[in-house]
Amino acid sequence: MISAMIPKTPLEDWIFSDIAAASEDGGRRTRSCIESYQFQKIRDTLEKVCAASPFYRKRMARVVPADFRSLADISLLPFTTAADIRGDHALQFLCVSQSDVERCVTLQTSGTTGQAKRIFFSREDLERTEAFFHYGMSALVHDGDRVMILLPCDRPDGAGGLLGKALERMGLKSLPYGPLKDVRDAVDVILQRDVTCLVGAPIHVLAIARSGDSAALLRSRLSGVLLTTDYVPRAVVDVLERELNCPVYTHYGMTEMGWGGGVECRARQGCHLREADLYIEIVNPETGFPAPDGVWGEIVVTTLTRVAAPLIRYRTGDISRFLTTDCPCGAVLKRLDHRIYRLENMACLRSGALTGLPLLDEAFFPLPGVMDVQATLTTQLNRDCLAVSLMLVPETDPDRTAQAAVQILMNIPEFRVAVDAGMLTLAPVRCICCSSIPTMQKRCLKRSIIS
Known about the structure:
By secondary structure, the chain is of the alpha/beta class. It is 30% helix and 22% strand.
């Protein structure tokens, strides 16, 4: 039986230890036990922010925490958006004095020119993230593993630094390498330091696997790869598992969540969520109404244990769904589909067809040598124009890749129908051999409307 072969995610023991400490019946491993805990934590958080946060005191002026009687009542509360936490407005979220803020993270969202988002963390908040990294990583590493961290590691209280601390308290060796800049150097370090596990952005790990003889040198040397910081195309997972001959896991998180949100177990069938610290909803992105389990919608986050600056119903702009089947590992924790997309990367063509960067990623990443996919959708009057650029590792034939890419585009039904109707023009595919590595900035579909 498969469930007996796959160990349960270590996140469950950690999460239920918190629940047991906070409730009388916390020893039971049931959904109702988790939901009872989350209900009480939401009420506690409401009381806290209504009393201590200038922003929520005003936003929730008509909310009486005692009237919050079930988890379903959360849908009656207003949303928090990215615009709310930009610039100096973010200070209005603080529930502690500024002297108790251990870390303030400033984020300039890709593609925007306005004020940056600011998120505040206390020492307790950072310790909770470190604990999540500890138990989340326990699902995919083994005793004796050496983990290369291809994330910013210049600060001990950043995502890379906290991950390194978590690995050390597990008794594992972490190598804080930083974002990928030179594939040859990274491969040399992997070989010289006997690295057995990589943690990094999807396109960075893909660049390592596809450059020169890297795949041949690393094949079967790695016990696992964890992809994080951006959404993960399934095509990239398939390529990496084939080229490196090791399991590839997906992590979902964002700074607003405290970096850690959910991670796959060894079954690799969706991300188990950090349910003692976060309450996750899926809502219809247009109406804001709750979506049934199994239905795609926008991820909305409420923090349950955040000390410095809690968030209530924060709209992430990410699209996914709750999985409705049981995980083979046997955990009762909710799981998000590993397919998680940015709402801003989706677009409706003039023909009415829904398209976006995820569709292009799944189409083009399987092509040999593709390191990154970029796209611009320009709309003028009743016609769209889609321009695709493929970044290739230096050894790739750009002409052959361009020919294959054009054929792929024309075989996508949404595009073919729109082209035949005269509502879409496909620009020639640009294929660029590039020795430089793409940055860690989140990838996005560029859009332009010409009036």
